[in-house]
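Sample entry was shown:

___
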Amino acid sequence: MAAAAAAAAVGGPQPPQAEMPAPGLALDKAATAAHLKAALSRPDNRAGAEELQALLERVLSAERPLAAAADGEEAAAAGGGGGPGAAEEEALEWCKCLLAGGGGYDEFCAAVRAYDPAALCGLVWTANFVAYRCRTCGISPCMSLCAECFHQGDHTGHDFNMFRSQAGGACDCGDSNVMRESGFCKRHQIKSSSNIPCVPKDLLMMSEFVLPRFIFCLIQYLREGYNEPADVPSEKDLNKVLQLLEPQISFLEDLTKMGGAMRSVLTQVLTNQQSYKDLTSGLGENAYARKSHEKYLIALKSSGLTYPEDKLVYGIQEPSAGTSTLAVQGFAGATGTLGQLDSSDEEDQDGSQGLGKRKRVKLSSNTKDQSIMDVLKHKSFLEELLFWTIKYEFPQKMVTFLLNMLPDQEYKVAFTKTFVQHYAFIMKTLKKSHESDTMSNRIVHISVQLFSNEELARQVTEECQLLDIMVTVLLYMMESCLIKSELQDEENSLHVVVNCGEALLKNNTYWPLVSDFINILSHQSVAKRFLEDHGLLVTWMNFVSFFQGMNLNKRELNEHVEFESQTYYAAFAAELEACAQPMWGLLSHCKIRETQEYTRNVVRYCLEALQDWFDAINFVDEPAPNQVTFHLPLHRYYAMFLSKAVKCQELDLDSVLPDQEMLMKLMIHPLQIQASLAEIHSNMWVRNGLQIKGQAMTYVQSHFCNSMIDPDIYLLQVCASRLDPDYFISSVFERFKVVDLLTMASQHQNTVLDAEHERSMLEGALTFLVILLSLRLHLGMSDDEILRAEMVAQLCMNDRTHSSLLDLIPENPNPKSGIIPGSYSFESVLSAVADFKAPVFEPGGSMQQGMYTPKAEVWDHEFDPVMVILRTVYRRDVQSAMDRYTAFLKQSGKFPGNPWPPYKKRTPLHPSYKGLMRLLHCKTLHIVLFTLLYKILMDHQNLSEHVLCMVLYLIELGLENSAEEESDEEASVGGPERCHDSWFPGSNLVLNMRHFINYVRVRVPETAPEVKRDSPASTSSDSLGSLQNSGTAQVFSLVAERRKKFQEIINRSSSEANQVVRPKTSNKWSAPGSAPQLTTAILEIKESILSLLIKLHHKLSGKQNSYYPPWLDDIEILIQPEIPKYSHGDGITAVERILLKAALQSRMNKRIIEEICRKVTPPVPPKKITAAEKKTLDKEERRQKARERQQKLLAEFASRQKSFMETAMDVDSPESDIPMEITTAEPQVSEAVYDCVICGQSGPSSEDRPTGLVVLLQASSVLGQCRDNVEPKKLPITEEEQIYPWDTCAAVHDVRLSLLQRYFKDSSCLLAVSIGWEGGVYVQTCGHTLHIDCHKSYMESLRNDQVLQGFSVDKGEFTCPLCRQFANSVLPCYPGSNVENNLWQRPSNKSIQDLIKEVEELQGRPGAFPVSISSETNLSKEMESVMKDIKNTTQKKYRDYSKTPGSPDNDFLFMYSVARTNLELELIHRGGNLCSGGASTAGKRSCLNQLFHVLALHMRLYSIDSEYNPWRKLTQLLEEMNSQLGNEEQQSEVPILYHDVTSLLLIQILMMPQPLRKDHFTCIVKVLFTLLYTQGLVALSVKCSEEDRSAWKHTGALKKNTCDAEKSYEVLLSFVVRELSKGKLYHEEGTQECATISPVAWSPESTEKYLQDFCLPFLRITSLLQHHLFGEDLPSCQEEEEFSVLSSCLGLLPTFYQTEHPFISASCLDWPVPAFDIISQWCFEINSFTERHAEQGKALLLQESRWKLPHLLQLPENYNTIFQYYHRKTCSVCTKVPKDPAVCLVCGTFVCLKGLCCKQQSYCECVLHSQNCGAGTGIFLLINASVIIIIRGHRFCLWGSVYLDAHGEEDRDLRRGKPLYICKERYKVLEQQWISHTFDHINKRWGPHYNGL
């Protein structure tokens, strides 16, 4: 249809077959193609070319299809059956035919592939693909490999990880620009280009003609589909168009996959400017083409872009690639500001106007290059294709196609240039996009492939102004969201900042552009160009200044802020990503001397920008109060480049520093931040909400600190080293608002701080000074030292895992790089400072990770409290570090008490910063220290130990860093402007320490106690003289000093400026009028720093004269000062250390110390206490006492709890347990007494008020998982390995039961075996008892309790009220007495025959219970309800095995099987045998005794018809043997030899009245043992060969008449063989021979061993049962003697049995009736069955009794093997690859977690599987997360992972992607919990899964 219509439309030479009917078309396409190819191959191919063009016009016209598509359904109807897609398909078919030139398309593809010189992999992937990154092989940090290339390459020992791609990517294997060749995989190692033959010309000839038309057709579709309406086109329309084009784009994508040859053709087509011009100019006569071109122009225009022709600039239409765009700027750029951009942006601005609540600011940007922003000229298909790709917001298919082409080098360059050309347009589209996240990912997916390649980036930078474009585009982007800054001078501020509430910042929309910028700055050649280009630097600083001062916080003073804005994180992220990371990128290229120039450039423009900023915000010298911004990127750029200049480039610091005035301005804002941090921690900003705390934390957090707080502190250190120290110190105290506190008076008035904040602000100020003076991060530490200090600080706070350490240590250079700086040195430093603690297991479940913990010598020498304080996000971490330090000192015996933070020696200062130490030697600081020491000594309020600690630290720092040259006796030289001369003579701390200060004049409120005292002035005049004119009142001295200094600096000449500042000071600091008047008082002090220190020593030690100069005893001390005894200790030690250092530094000080100590110090006068103070003191004291009381109570409580825990709570530490026998064994107590844990009363359990055991009933299939081989099965990791469950215990038992049911009477079958191997009910208890009525009310209260519990009360679940163990039922305790017990246990001397009769009679007597069941007592009701619970615990399919539903036999079978299940499980918990003996683990907590009573009670309700009671068959000879054979029609009973003996035992015992007598029990066991032994003999006879049988037959017959023939296995065996030979059992040997014969001949030893092994399982279960029923201990023994020990313990062995000769199992036999008669009777049953069914008869005799312990599947060593196989495996149910694959660790089934695809009746697959495989318990390994999840019934929990990395850590969700290895211990723990059914008790975090897993 299409062809005919098209033919009509086209004039010109019409191909002959156009008129042919449709069916022939396919064949004719091929013919046409061949014909055209031939025509084109001729030398003169014009005619052919025309013909082809005509055909293509016809086939590939874009006019029809999309027009139809746009009209949607009507078009489909109109177009007949074909619908809109038919024509396109037709066109595609034509294209394929034509490309292949008449051949088959597939053959053509194969032919082209043969010419592929595949040197590169280039595989492109999309988000969520699993890829690898190897840092050892990567040159670029973005390098990635597909899994195949990674596994084919050799990366052993490399630093690699697996990751899930976020944005998509491409494989770099084979690209030596991005990775080292050593890492290439086998396929891409060979440089194969040499041996690939040349592509034959005619192969791709047709492609060169067809593809341009095809791509043009695609472009026309894209033009056609894009209707630019008034509003933004909706996603839906765009997606519709894209869906229709899917086949075309896929076709192109397939072409790219044909390899290099085809790619180069495509490159030619895409970049050929001529063909583009010819086809798209829209100038032809074709109306459609014209219309299409118009649409294209409209689209350009509406995008705010101009087609250069529209401009008046015809002079230069397109700058040639080389010339700079700046040429165009002259013409195009000058025409305007942002006019063009404004118009395009207006519409989305009004919408979000409300967001910022402040008017946006528009900048006029004449500076910038307009043409970058809005000129686009397309010259090739590639360019227009990219244009539409952007327009349609980067459809995934298009992106993949464009990226698939990248291995073609020529294309790569062309595409990169095109991408750069469209960069501005990308930014505009991104800003408008609704799906900015997806779009961002797609953009980065492309750009990371282009810009990671240094060679390419350099080329584009040179030829296309890449840097200009990027910076300009970033600037434009941010300009759309600027607001006026309110920092400092709100009204007149000219500064603009970004608005962090804007979507652009909040959603991180800018990150693709920023990440590209960071990426290209990582290339040295590009970064150099950037650093050399002054214009770019100016623009960049302009960009950075948009972030300077953003997100301003204003302190709320009155009420709490209504709306807590969460924008702060956007601000931090923006500064980190847009400012700091490019900065780190640039810094990484300024490493050597030769790069000094770059640093100078940056510093210069940075200072200019800062100056502009100060001017714009109108800043003079006082920061505005109560506001803070954490964002000062300009300051930080400046600081970091300074640091680099001094550290790496040997620049002279002073040459890049500004003048003093600028330094003063520079220090203000960073200092403001430090003060605000203290305010925030003092809760002064509490009304601003939690977010302000969040900001304070983020500022110091590990990812931000090295771009935020570190540069700030460094900048302050630089300022402090260059400014006047007195000025700096007073500024600090003023900023921290504690100036008023620094007075000698005991009371003062603080005008700017509330009293409750004073103490913490003072601590803050002193701590800041300590940090400022001790931190050496940028002042001389090497990188390795920094790394070590950081690591020690983190490890001291807490033990850390390897990954958290990596995360917590600030990365040094560009964090984007993903390369940890010298990760080798990371490992070596780590091993130097820390010990690895391997993960340990507490038997409480909590899984530990491998941790690193500091070595002892680190605590000893390297613990640095200053670094810890700097790096803690939470204040509690500082405390934690100190606690750990204390613990270390106690443990190592270095210091018993509560130590103070140790003083740590510092790295020497870099010479450039020596000035910093002047802070320690300035009088202002000395006055502060003196004052504070005095105040502490006098116990003024608001001073803490922390203050004292910091004061001493500062003094010690001063002593350590004193100027050496000052000689001891040198007098201070009085200079002209000596401030504070009244206080101290000089500025050296060493000298000032000994200076005595006698009197001080202070300003105090009139109410202060000082005022009442007599002024010393009145007493003597000479004392006044020594007052030395105390100068201005000390309250003001600090501030006034600072002002004075500032004035001196600013206006060295102009005096009038003085007046400007003065008023500010006076009004700010005058006291508010309401306060009491200040008055001046004079205090007598008469102390020096030294004397204060010595008195402090007395005060701290609480003894008079406690200080004695150590050098008086040992002069050595002065020679070798480093004395370990002073390095750790409390305040006393610190004082001693300081005094020693002071004495060391000057003889004078030494003398004075000695003098002071000689004077006996008078006691410190008691202070007068005012009433108000007394009140507060009382309050404090009362509080303290209350606290102590509370502590005491808590301690008592804890110890109680502990002792309880020790007795009760050892779910998992079985060894340490004290047995908790429920019944007590003292004979005088007549009845067992129980304690109720709810009401606390003790008493027996009675009929009307029964007591019960707290139990947990759960269905279990653990037994069913036993197999008969020791090696556990392996988890399948290839298609070949599959696990079939036919050899599991459950399967074998199932087969046996169904076999019996086929041939025998159903009721008899149900007595012959046990069930419960799968879905059996396991009962366990914590051992606590409660009254059942108490329990009911307890459950009621739980029901009403609204708290969210981890269990469901409606299902009867609860936790034991005492030990909180999970439980779901109560098992009533049978009222019984112990005395009776003792009677029952007396051995009687009755013969076995009498006992047998008694047993039979007792069994026949129904209801022979002491309690008659007919009477409904509370007890019997409870027993019934618990039985119901037991039944409901498991699913119906695990209870009903009878053919007639609901038959009583079924219940009977279920009940005795419950007993069997519990015994078997206990045996497994004991390790499968009873060698260990003892009242072992399970014994003490066992509830089997109670369970037996409940089961027996219910079993007695069903009496077995005495006819069928197996007891008779076992103990009597029946006469009428033959009668049974007559009636063959009716199904007979199961022959006794097919019965399961253990089941018989349980039936017999549960049928007896309880409590059972011991001799009856022994009698039953003896009788059953004879049957068991016979079964063993029969099985043996079937197993062995014919010869063996005849041999035995013979030897046995000889001995038959000896005295103990019945106890000789040979005799019995030969008899069995003779009897069974009568039937057909041994016949048909021929068919079965190989299966039954065991290769070894049977020796007597092996026979004996076989028989013992056959009987052992029965003996074990029986012994356990005896242990529980009669409370007898189990003996322990060796494995070899287990049989003999158990049999004698059960009373099977006669007591007089001699132990000399080797033990024979047969000696245990005690036949109730003559052995040979009863055996022949049993054999007769078998023979009569094998008459008909010999095969089955034989199979039933060979029962496997030796099951090994159950195991989970064995897992491979390396997790990757599991991951690689399963994460791509398709689910067998839904045949899709699951999103969350999981695998069952019990049986290896592969399931979809949460997969709706595999849901059945509202159950998801994992839940379903847990019911089928584990009767409600499932253990699944989640493939994509490496975590194990446990499903238990209706709840689930995450258990943790059994795979750990090399550092003993889990990697949940495989986030880190490091190789993981199996942790065998963890897996053992998991298996242990599974086998012992303790998941519920050990794992604490359970939640309901609502069947959705």
